[in-house]
Amino acid sequence: MPETPTDVPARSAGRRPPRSWLWAMPPDNYAIYCKTNTFAIRKVGRAALARIRPGDRIFAYLSGSRVIAGLFEATSAAFEDTTPLVPGEHYPHRVRVRPVVQLSKEAWVPYEAFSDQLDVVREYADFRSVVQQVLHPLPAVDEKVLTFLVRARSADMEQAMAALEAWKQLRQAAPRAASPAPWPAPAVHEPPAAYAPPPDFDRMRAMEALLAHLDARGFVYEPWQVAAFVAALRTKPFVILAGVTGTGKSKLPVLVAEATGADAALVPVRPDWTDSSDVLGYVDLQGRFRPGVLLQQARAAAEAPHRYHLAVLDEMNVARVEHYFAEVLSRIEARRPAGGGYASPPLLALDLPPEAAAWGRVGLPPNLALVGTVNMDESAHAFSRKVLDRAFTLELAEVDLTRWQARSERPVPEPGCWPAGVWQPRGLRLSEVALTEAERERVEAVVAELEAANVFLAPAQLHVAYRTRDEAALFVL
Pick from 157, 173, 189: which residue ends a domain? Predict the structure, then answer.
């Protein structure tokens, strides 16, 4: 049996005054937590969990529903217990709690009622960055704000007015600034990245050598599929390869990397990935930062800027992509000119220990692309529009079972050496690209096709917008 701490009276243990915490949890887990009087986390937030003491107040924030569901009090210190708590999930890091105010579903406090009233938000870009840490300490002023809202929703007006009066007194002692501090501007202004293909690089000859390499290896891909994959990588650093099992989705990026002198790392996605801790990393209960697999790939690529890198997320939809990949998707859209290409801001929004500060500066470098493979069957999760809107999707659907004999007797050619610069996009937006007359005609043809498609898509609110237009046009250049 795992060891669990003995519950103690809330005010009798610990020397420091009680603190307040915001605890973001999945809505599906909340009922179980209330029934067992136990709150739990997987990985992210463990350093903060270790700081909780009996008597601390915890506001339960349901991240999927964006509401405060209740106020609880810790009755134990943090402990580990591998006994199943949530069916099918692993939440070993726990603390015992008792309800102080447990709101009915109709009385839950909506996000809009408090998000712009909290001082803790001033430390971050937005409220989402706060809840991504799962467990975050609250300033005393914020505790009074949330206590007032929770008490008022519970119809305990006497307690609510007492909380309001306490909040006013704290505000008078430490008045809020007239407006939040502006987000710091970059210290160095970077001009837009100029597209400059490396000298003496013959793209047509390089593509012919790539196709010959795949043919000699005995893998069956149509030339247009390989060309489309390469063009997609040059358009956007996130490509999804879809199709039935066995069509070579996972092998294609590995073979392309092998034939072009790039580096490819296969990252198997697990069904229990419910947040970004496995992808980006987390701080454990001892305060040590454990970098995730994608963060390690990003750092390795940044340390070898002259080589192209592919991180292949195999079967990425066995877990919900928008849950474990949300931060990465946001960073892809926030890329800026850097190093002859486009790099993202730092991936992490965690409070890291000093010895791990370098990890907090790691973003998506210009020479790293993400490739996801997906199986379209009953065991996989469907993609949200947010994910599909931020990825370049290719479907490998053509299968010719008669092509089973070796197509070439020639030895496998030596891998080529494609400089990292040849993979860089010509721009993020169509308006940034200087076009020749022939290129302008191709772009106009693409836009005309999209306009024709929008005639049928617009009534269902599925029409193509500006970002998709730009990416489709850049794909054909």
Answer: 173
Backbone phi, then psi, for 170, in 5-degree steps? -65, -40
Indicate if 222 and 333 belong to the same structural domain: yes
Q: How far apart are CA 345 and CA 190, in angstroms?
A: 14
Same domain, 267 and 222: yes
Q: At 350, give phi and psi (nearest 5°).
A: -100, 155
Domain that holds residue 249: 203-425
Q: Is residue 182 part of a domain?
A: no
Alpha-carbon distance of 58 to 86, in angstroms, equals 20
8-37 pLDDT per residue, tens: 444 444 467 899 999 999 888 999 999 999
* Residue 102 counted as domain residue: yes
Residue 7 has pLDDT above 70, yes or no: no
Question: Could you give the residue ranges of the DSSP H alpha helices within 154-222?
Answer: 157-173, 203-217
Radius of gyration for the chain, computed over Cα atoms and rounded to the nearest angstrom = 26
Return the higher-pLDDT residue of 59 and 131.
59
Residues 346, 360: Cα–Cα separation, whole Å = 6
Distinct helix (H) and strand (E) counts, the chain: 15, 17
From residue 42, give the alpha-carbon distance in Å to each of 165, 187, 372, 404, 470: 37, 37, 24, 47, 40
CB 392 within 8 A of CB 471: yes
| Domain containing residue 65: CATH number | 3.10.590.10
Residue 368 has pLDDT above 90, yes or no: yes
Whether 68 contacts 30, CB under 8 Å: no
Q: pLDDT for 140-175, tens place per residue?
A: 888 888 888 888 777 654 554 555 556 556 555 654
- 191 located within any domain: no
The confidence score (pLDDT) of residue 127 equals 75
Quick one: pLDDT at residue 152? Answer: 77
Distance CA 361, CA 359 (A): 5
End residue of a domain, out of 128, 153, 173: 173
Tell me how many domains the chain contains: 3
Q: Are strands 67-74 and 57-62 parallel, antiparallel or unpaired?
A: antiparallel
How do residues 305-318 score in pLDDT, each as one tens digit?
888 999 999 999 88
Q: Please report the DSSP string for 318-382 in residue order.
A: GS-HHHHSHHHHHHHHT-EEETTEEEPSBS--S---GGGGGGGG-B--TTEEEEEEEE-STTSPP
Burial (0-12, 13-18, 19+ Cβ within 10 Å), 37: middle
Q: Is 178 exposed, middle or buried (0-12, 13-18, 19+ CB in 10 A)?
A: exposed
Domain identity same for 419 and 438: no
